[in-house]
Amino acid sequence: MKRMADPAKVLLERLMRLLRWRLWIQEKLQPTEWQITLMWAAVAGFTGAMSSMLFSVLAEGIHELLTGRSEGVVETMRLLPWWAVIGVPAAGGLLAGLTLALGKRIVRGQSSTDYMEAIVIGSGEIPVRTSLIKSAAALFSIGSGGSIGREGPMVQIAAVLASLIGRWRKFSPPQLRLLVACGAASGIASAYNAPIAGSFFVAEIILGTIAMESLGPLAVSAVVAALTVRGLTDAQQLYDVPPFKLSSAWEMIPYIVLGLIAGTLAPWFLRSLRRAEKWFVATSVPPIARLVLGGIIVGDLAVFYPEVAGNGYSVVVGILNGHVPWLALIGIMLAKWVATAASFGSGAPGGVFTPALFMGASAGYLFGTAVNMFWPTGAADPQAFALVGMGAFLSAASYAPVMAVIMLFEMTLSYDIILPLLLCSVIAYFTAKGLQGESLYSESLRRKAAETPRAALPAGNVRDLMKQNPPAVPTTARFAEIARMFLSVRVNNIYVTGKDGRFLGAVALHDIKPYLGDADLAGLVIANDIMREDFPRIGPDQSLSDALGGFLGQPLERLPVIDPDTGKLLGSLSKSDLLLALVEKRQKPTA
Amino acid sequence: MLDLAVNSRETALRTLHGALAAHPAVADGERLLRDVLERVMLAPVCIAPEVALPHARTDAVTNLVLGVARIAAPGVGFDGEHPHVRLMFLIGAPRSAVDDYLRLVANISRVLKKEGTYAALLDAPDEHVFRAILARAAAA
Predict the structure, then answer these.
(1) Chain A contact for B122 (CB, 8 A cutoff)
(2) pLDDT (0 to 100) of residue A486
(3) Tens of pLDDT, residues B65-75
(4) Contact B109 A521 (CB under 8 A)
(5) Nearest to A280 by CA among A213, A348, A234
(6) Where does residue A314 rank: exposed (0-12), middle (13-18), buried (19+ CB within 10 A)?
(7) Which residues on A lie below 8 Å from B55 (Cβ)?
(8) Phi and psi (nearest 5°) for A259?
(9) Where exactly are the structural domains of chain A?
(10) Residues of chain B contacting A482 with CB distance shorter than 8 Å
(11) Considering only residues 457 to 486 of chain A, which have any Cβ-Cβ distance to chain B shorter than 8 Å?
């Protein structure tokens, strides 16, 4: 029998060859759903790093636009005439206020979900326009020298981009939340050039777990972000510090006291910020005027203490390197405290992460200097106390001691300090927790969760998690059609349904794999001939743990969800979604 | 079976099925026929202009069964595109034997593709030679 060179047949053979290749690659590389999640985490890391760098550039651009100078914020404030020192932050406040007011008109009705809410109590979706407007306003408050950190908006934008990617790829809510968390991790990793801290920040503070299911993607995202930043800029560790060493074990005693101090100061600091916010609201002036007022306060303080302007980074570097005299630091610290309260309280969008580091460094340095005066052996090097103070303060403010220790280590690359840092951070954490029940982040989250009517609770049964419209074919679908579908969607089983939508069975890629090269089969065999009727299935109202039982002993990535009454195919449940949901559920048993 | 003198697809199938039904692996002959006929209605079963593989995965058989028939010229029409089918391979496969079924179908298609096999099968003077040609081609 002669073979015909029928173009349709040639095409079919090519198609089959393509599918065989795909299968070969798939078998060699075995990209499971987890690997795909990791890949998207890497993409989120890259976009997060790019957006963070863009934000930095824009903030510097606005700073230059407003002041006509390209030096750092503190240096600029030193060089500007007094009226400009007051005027620039006030103008920044005005512009930020106008942006927010204008934005409110554009996005009327859109909620102002931030990334933490999206991950903890939401579905992982973050409103894009609201976030962009807030970030644009943040550019003005930061560029004009407001005493506020830039990491907040950076992380928010990185998370928004991740959320967009996840929505585009139609991720399930647990996967989407995880991807948003990856975006946030990449934002922190690129803002502080601290990939480990970036992943742990999100894991510890937002997800509340360091289970590998979530930490793995976070780490990938953070590493990619850090690599991107390092590849495109000459980023080094954030704080260049002289080498420290623990001169004697006696030093641990003052460090313990420092832990107690930081653990006491941090809740005060946070409470004062909230009180300032209440005070500004109570003045009942319109929000724009509040922002201008906040700017004027920061400007007034900057006339005497230029160091209060900006997030405080350069001053911290000065403290750590011993360039700031302790007497001057007392005034600077108090002024910075008031300035941060003014910026934050007036509603300037931005973060308080870096200002918190500033407070910790100042407190540590002042305490170290005081001890050194009376007991030189107890605090040989006050700068080391500044460094440890930063970590302790951060730990107490964020309630994430592990992240704080790692972040300090990554930002300074000073390993010698790790022993006092670890001890001090833990003590500060427990002190703060004893004084006040909630962290920098938990209070606002709890408030928001209470007022969100449809706060996305962890999924309770299969229906909440299943994906609709899984790949399915009718019983008469030809082998070629099935093969084509396997090529276009990444599944190992294609479901077969009857005319009425009833689930009849599944065609397994595994079964047809050896025959993909056979063009005769392509036209002869139909789904009905090769489907497996005994394919495992689950019902929509089964609990998640029951569903997990359905996966046990099966090498399946997905299970079809079948209506028990009608037998119709409703959707499919993926194993990775199920595992993520179970991890989430374990974190929030009461929700 | 060689040189079935039949004039329709259904008679061809019924005749070959009649010979196959006695096989010990066929638990329910009626059902096998019904399932095969149903399958033939559902979608075409030809792999070459003159070769048909009517088949069914069915509970009617306990093991894979195969019946082969050569139809006298000019053959019977299986569908619009295959009006002169001369060779017919009737397959009954247990529901769970997806793999065995696919292997058998692939083997038949491979055997028939072998240069000269098809012509030799058509020319085979008796069942003995016919079987020998099939066996030889399958073993090669």
Answers:
(1) no
(2) 80
(3) 888 888 887 88
(4) yes
(5) A348
(6) middle
(7) 529
(8) -60, -45
(9) 33-232, 249-451, 462-587
(10) none
(11) 475-476, 478
Please name the residues between 92 and 111 in chain B that touch chain A, using a CB distance below 8 Å. Answer: 95-96, 98-99, 101-103, 105-106, 109-110
Residue A529 is nearest to which of B46, B55, B113, comparing CB atoms? B55
Asked whether the beta carbons of A399 and A205 are under 8 A apart, the reply is yes
Using the beta-carbon criterion (under 8 Å), do B48 and A1 form an inter-chain contact?
Answer: yes
Question: What span, in angstroms and rounded, lies between the C-alpha atoms of A358 and A214?
Answer: 31
- Cβ <8 Å between B95 and A533: yes
| Residues of chain A contacting residue B106, judged by C-beta atoms under 8 Å apart | 514-515, 518, 520-521
Q: Running DSSP on this structure, what letter comes out for residue B82?
A: B
Q: Nearest 10 degrees: CA dihedral of A188, A191, A195, A197? A: -50
Residue A347 is given by DSSP the state T
Domain positions in chain B are 9-139
CATH class in words for A33-232: mainly alpha
pTM for the full predicted model:
0.67
Fold of A249-451: Clc chloride channel (1.10.3080)
| Rounded (5°) CA angle A557-B104-A484 | 40
- ipTM at complex level: 0.85
- A462-587 has the same fold as A33-232: no
What is the dihedral angle through the alpha carbons of A259, A262, A266, A267, rounded to the nearest 10 degrees? 60
Instruction: Return the CATH number of A462-587, one of 3.40.50.300, 3.10.580.10, 1.20.140.10, 2.40.50.180.
Output: 3.10.580.10
CATH code at B9-139: 3.40.930.10
Residues in chain A predicted with pLDDT less than 70, given as ranges, are: 1-5, 26-32, 108-123, 437-459, 584-591
CB contacts of B57 in chain A (<8 Å) are 528-529
A520 touches chain B (CB under 8 A): yes
pLDDT over 90 for what percent of chain B? Answer: 0
DSSP A390-414: HHHHHHHHHT-HHHHHHHHHHHH--
- Residue B44 near chain A (CB below 8 Å): yes
